[in-house]
Amino acid sequence: MRRLVTFLGIFISLTLIYCTPKKGADLGQTPNPLANLGEYKAVVGTYGGSLRLTTTSPPKTFNNLMAKETSTTDITRWIFEGLTNQSGITTKVEPWLASTWDISSDGLTYTFHLRKNVKWFDGKPFTADDVVFTFNDLIFNEKIPSSSADTFTIDGKRIEVSKVDDLTVNFKLATKFAPFLQAMGTAIYPKHKLEKFVKEGTFASAWGVSTLPAEIIGTGPFVLSKYVTGQRVELKRNPNYWQKDDAGNVLPYLDGLEFTIVQNSDVELLKFKNDETDFYSVRGQDYPTLKPLEAEKNFTIYNAGPAFGSQFLVVNQNKGKDDKGSSYVPPHKLKWFTNVNFRKALAYAIDKQSIINIELNGLGYDQWGPESPSAGFFFSSDLVTYPYNLDKARDILKGEGFVDRNSDGFLEDKEGNPVEFVMITNADNTERKGILEIIRKDFEKLGIKAHISLLEFNSIVSKLFNTYDWDIVLIGLTGGIEPHFGSNIWKSEAHMHMWYPKQKEPATAWEKRINEIFSQGVQELDPDKRKKLYDEWQKIVSDNLPVIYTVLSASISAMNNKFGNVYPTPFGGTFHNIERIYVKKKS
Amino acid sequence: MKTYVLRRILISIPLLIAISFITFSALQLAPGTILDTIRFNPQVSEETVEKLERQYKLDKHWLVQYLYWLKGIAKLDLGYSIRNERPVSQIILSRALNTLLLSVVSMFFIWLIAIPSGIYTAVHQYSFGDKVFSVVSYIGLSLPGFFFALLLLFFADMWGIFPKGQLFSGEYASIGFFGKFWHITKHLLVPVIVISTGSMAVLQRIMRGNMLEVLRTQYLVTARAKGLPEKRVIYGHALRNAVNPMITIFGYQLSGLLSGAALIEMICSYPGLGYTMLDAVRAQDTHLVMGAMLISGVLLVAGNLVADILLVIVDPRIRVH
Questions:
Q1: pLDDT confidence bin for B261, thresholds 50/70/90
Q2: What's residue A32's pLDDT?
């Protein structure tokens, strides 16, 4: 008996220790976005040294076009380059492999003038043939299982690409396409290396991870030098790179990049703390333990501001019926979900500050509209916002006839149906689980019975795109700047219009207006007129709440102080100017 | 003997087909396909996803897909990994060697320690040495492998002696033969200790039990009575009889050479087959999962066969028909 008591005593005290809430990060500690950096001004660096990085997933292939995940593109982004580049700092399009371009007065023909001094890694010159080959034989090749043709297919019509001379390429569009120059950032591949694979029909498996590194030819600042399966990737400096610094030195400064492949972010953190790596992408939860080590371990934590990856609730408004004639969403639920005031009440009940404090350790930002505040030019601050206010939410629900009719503590609608639904999210994402739990508690305070169901990502996708049998989902998208690249979500006939996909006719007036905005926006070449259109779209979305946005995490990274020209931004990350990052000489 | 082996191999074919069929149908139970991450990309149109489905034959009924796979196997082609864009055989081969290295080294230590210590503890029952081994093996038995691995990794981190995870870090290529040997030893240490401890404890207990049982038999009394030296009694008579069940276990262990270490591989970030397999199941990369399953199945069948043949060699009482 005494033993049992002792055991229980130990058990209870351990539980207490474990459950005592940990102190969140002090909000005042959070560095202001870029406050410690000032204006970006690259200085002339010195050669030598390498950058040690970690990645949590081994590359599956080095064939950039066939890449299905970032494990490949995180590495190939240093090897392959496009005709244009979107600046990591200003997010504007800048000349890259093409030095200039002309646009015809009707906006349909683009003529690109390629740089003269660009060479492939094997010394062969980069020419118009490579550009034409990349588009006509790779991207538009029906036999190659890749999804890249979609960006260059406008209204079902492909862009016609033709060579004018060795350094001039012509692109002819069927209709005006405003984000064309951004899209031209797509990587260009060497014809002389890849043509034989296309002819043999083996392009998909060409340039796999067992290929000799010297065979993988690009134009970028770094060359693949070694891959140890599942363990390490090494890149070395491209000595013939076309970019030079202000003093005329050939870039990049670094001798190489070394990636160690580890199983998860915890190991990445451990390695960074032990000075085995130079960079760590900081999660909110790591900030309190990492911040005090800054001086001792000689690194700096940068906060570049709101990141792009959004997390939002979608409410199922699908009015369709399945093959057997029964509705995807039970009719009484559909009545609530299609009621904009019901959605507004839900939005008022989302306690963003608690989500930021608890789930993101204080390192996050409210999100009210579809564009991240970091999107710069396209971001509109003229949005309808729903600051956390349970009383207001209650009033709205009352006004719509949602009251507790049988005094069981929960709400019923006008017909007496209890307000009850299931919220799903993917089980592997602990942050989303946490967000959903906070939301559920607040919904409960309103008298709504909300249940959480955690599913595999793939089964959520099949619910959203095939069976449509769901109530509310919390899901996220990586996001970006160009609004048009989200048109598969916003146009009512699109399959990713999650709340009611593939509509024959827009179900509501505002959905109709969004369709118009996206059709006009893609054709509008005047940036200011274009911005006005997309400002309206952001306002409509925030007003009608087809998706209810939650929070954006801060884009925080930690980097060893020995490097110079480090200037992290939310859009470009820490390495958008990799060719200019250098190891400072000890003084 | 030859006909026996041949018959066993022939019988194993329907067994393997059954295993593969069950695996394949279980994979179909999970909703969605490997293309779902692409499907959730706003920049990819639905037509493109359908085109990809056709190109990878994912639009066919799953039974038809299974028959395609089976047809490939008949031609010794393990299929194509969509996620890795390369043949399954290449992936399995590159990862299997790492796993084999880990398993074979662990197995070597397990048997090297378990058998002699089992004999010693049985012969010297209730001696001090026996009690020490008992305590150690009970700890080994009751400590879950994953927890032990985490514990060791924790100490490894605290003292900074062993590297955490990986097999070949940066300097590998630049060091000499002995350097390489030391390098691999260092990296194998934690996973090998973890894998060995559990199995070693089990085998040691079994060996001790078998040995004790044999030591009590009448023929050993006879052997001693006719004045045989103790060493002959133990190693010539008792051991040969006590070791029979161990050979069955050995065969069973052979079957786990590639799959047995999966959990520890994941915890120790060891680049073996186990992690690849888990990744493939999560991504629903069907052919890769099937390939790894098939290899494990073949090893299971082969391991059992080897054990049976060894038994015949060791034990003259057993004959095959």
A1: confident
A2: 46
A211-217 own/partner pairs: CB under 8 Å, 24+ apart? A211/A62, A214/A121, A216/A62, A216/A79, A217/A120, A217/A121, A217/A122, A217/A190, A217/A193
Return mean pLDDT, chain A: 89
For the stretch A136-164, pLDDT in tens is: 999 999 888 888 888 888 878 889 999 99
Q: Where are the alpha helices (DSSP H) in chain B?
A: 2-29, 36-39, 46-55, 62-74, 88-123, 128-142, 145-159, 177-215, 218-225, 230-231, 239-242, 244-255, 262-267, 273-283, 286-314
CA-wise closest residue to B82 among A61, A140, A187: A61
Residue numbers in A near B48 (CB within 8 A): 147, 149-150
Radius of gyration of chain A (CA): 26
B187–A contact, CB cutoff 8 A:
no
In-domain check, residue B20:
no
Q: Is A562's pLDDT higher than 60?
A: yes
pLDDT digits (tens, 9 = 90+) for A353-364: 999 999 998 899
Span A206-226, pLDDT tens digits? 998 888 999 999 999 999 999
Strand A310-315 versus strand A232-237 pairing type = unpaired
d(CA B193, CA B186): 11
- In angstroms, how far apart are the furthest CA atoms of chain A? 93
For A457, which of B36, B43, B167 is closest by C-beta distance?
B36
Confidence check: pLDDT of A135 > 90: yes
By the 10 Å C-beta count (0-12 exposed, 13-18 middle, 19+ buried), B281 is classed as middle
Q: Which of residues 202-221 of A touch B (CB under 8 A)?
A: 204-205, 208-210
Per-residue confidence (pLDDT) for residue A585, from 0 to 100: 82
Total domains, chain B: 1
Q: Please name the amino acid found at residue A398.
A: K
The per-residue pLDDT for A27 is 38
In terms of average pLDDT, the best of A23-32, A312-321, B22-31 is A312-321
Asked if residue B320 belongs to a domain, the reply is no
pLDDT given for residue A522 in this prediction: 92
B265 part of a folded domain: yes
Q: Mark A178-190 as b/e (b = at least 16 C-beta within 10 Å).
A: bbbbbbbbbbbbb
CATH of the domain at B109: 1.10.3720.10
Query: pLDDT at position A33, please?
Result: 46
**Nearest CA to A358 among A96, A64, A119, A27?**
A27
Residue in A139, A263, A269, A484 to test binding to B, most B beta-carbons within 10 Å: A263
A492 pLDDT tier (thresholds 50, 70, 90):
very high
pLDDT the model gives residue A34: 44
Spatial distance between the Cα atoms of A17 and A433, rounded to a whole number of angstroms:
23
Joined together, the tokens standing for residue B292 give 């790894």
**Does any CB of chain A come closer than 8 Å to the CB of residue B127?**
no
Structure-token pair, residue A4 = 């049992």
Place of tokens 């971001």: A379
> Structure pTM?
0.79
Angle at A258 between CA A252 and CA A260, to 5 degrees: 155
pLDDT band with cut points at 50, 70 and 90 for residue A24? very low
**Any chain A CB within 8 A of the CB of B286?**
no
- Structural domain of B114: 93-271
Tell me which residue in B32, B46, B80 faces A458 most closely, judged by beta carbons.
B32
Contact at CB, B83 and A477, closer than 8 angstroms:
no
- Buried (b) or exposed (e) across B236-275, using 16+ Cβ within 10 A? ebbbebbbbebbebbbebbbbbbbbbbbbbbbbbbbbbbb
Tokens of B49: 């996803």
Residues in B touching A459 (Cβ below 8 Å) = 30-32
At B80, list the tokens. Answer: 């194509």
* Position B229 in a domain: yes
pLDDT of B169 higher than 60: no
